[in-house]
């Protein structure tokens, strides 16, 4: 059988007597774009945190590219190619956009070497940074400190930086949150251009983003998997409509 990118086996998470995740199993194949959706409080962020290693599961296994990482802390999961973005962009706000990208390239390739020495010495890394800036349409703001940029740009810097670290499995926690409506199409386009060498698991409330990007959708409800299938199949599933989509539409998330 082909190696899977991610396997969750019977993941349960209880916090203070509450069951937040309830026997969640799912398999994501290499190159797949998987969306995890569900109503507020369904357990989506908790699930991403369990996959990334920020929260230990109470029961169950997390396997990334064939390796059981259940007991590895988050920073060690980077070694197997796993990276996560946050709901608030995790960027170095007082560094410039270019410095953020350089740092990400260096963390991805030369994690043990001194940053200053490498930036001055390694012209190859500097050239790669220019490529990343161009690819993500960030050249015009390359010398701006990230904290001075609008939220949509900060998101883009975060994604570009995560990408520069060459992950094999990228977890995106509500990447479209906070974007203005007119920023969404460009954002979707950029997500669609991500190379297939990278497997993506995305938690997202914007159905526009989910249906434009995901190959498969997993629906969580009260911490359990309610449905799992193609976007079309999931959209037509009556239980899903009942539990989630109609509610999301009523709340204006669609
Ligand atoms: N540390 C914690 N202690 C107690 N309850 C928690 C904790 N973390 C999460 N929860 C609860 O677990 C449930 C799932 O939370 P989670 O943030 O994973 O949901 P979500 O699906 O990501 O929601 P949203 O769409 O609103 O971001 C919620 O009811 C939340 O209140």
Automatic annotation (TrEMBL):
Xref: Gene3D superfamilies: P-loop containing nucleotide triphosphate hydrolases
UniProt keywords, alphabetically: ATP-binding, Nucleotide-binding, Transport
SUPFAM superfamilies on file: P-loop containing nucleoside triphosphate hydrolases
Domain of life from the UniProt record: Bacteria
SMART domains named in the record: AAA
Keyword Cell membrane: no
GO cellular component terms attached to this protein's record: plasma membrane
One Pfam family linked to the record: ABC_tran
Transport keyword on record: yes
PROSITE patterns in the cross-refs: ABC_TRANSPORTER_2 (PS50893)
Record PANTHER family: CONSERVED COMPONENT OF ABC TRANSPORTER FOR NATURAL AMINO ACIDS, CONSERVED COMPONENT OF ABC TRANSPORTER FOR NATURAL AMINO ACIDS-RELATED
This protein's name: ABC transporter ATP-binding protein
Organism: Thermalbibacter longus
């Amino acid at each position: 059988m082909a190696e899977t990118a991610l396997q969750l086996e019977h993941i349960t998470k209880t916090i203070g007597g509450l069951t937040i995740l309830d026997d969640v199993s799912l398999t994501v194949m290499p190159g797949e774009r998987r969306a995890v959706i569900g109503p507020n409080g369904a357990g989506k962020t908790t699930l991403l945190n369990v996959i990334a290693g920020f929260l230990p599961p109470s029961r169950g296994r997390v396997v990334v590219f064939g390796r059981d990482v259940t007991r590895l802390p988050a920073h060690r999961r980077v070694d197997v190619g796993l990276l996560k973005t946050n709901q608030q962009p995790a960027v170095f706000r007082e560094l410039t956009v270019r410095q953020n990208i350089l740092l990400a390239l260096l963390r991805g390739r030369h994690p043990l070497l001194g940053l200053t020495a490498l930036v001055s010495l390694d012209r190859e890394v500097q050239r790669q940074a220019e490529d990343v800036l161009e690819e993500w349409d960030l050249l015009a703001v390359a010398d701006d400190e990230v904290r001075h940029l609008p939220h949509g740009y900060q998101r883009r810097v975060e994604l570009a930086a995560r990408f520069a670290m060459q992950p094999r499995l990228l977890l995106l926690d509500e990447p479209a949150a906070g974007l203005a409506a007119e920023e969404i199409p460009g954002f979707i386009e950029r997500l669609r251009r991500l190379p297939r060498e990278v497997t993506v698991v995305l938690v997202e409330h914007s159905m526009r983003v989910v249906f434009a990007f995901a190959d498969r959708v997993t629906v969580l409800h009260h911490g359990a998997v309610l449905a799992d299938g193609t976007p079309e199949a999931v959209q037509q599933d009556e239980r899903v409509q009942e539990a989630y989509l109609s509610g999301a539409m009523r709340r204006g998330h669609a």
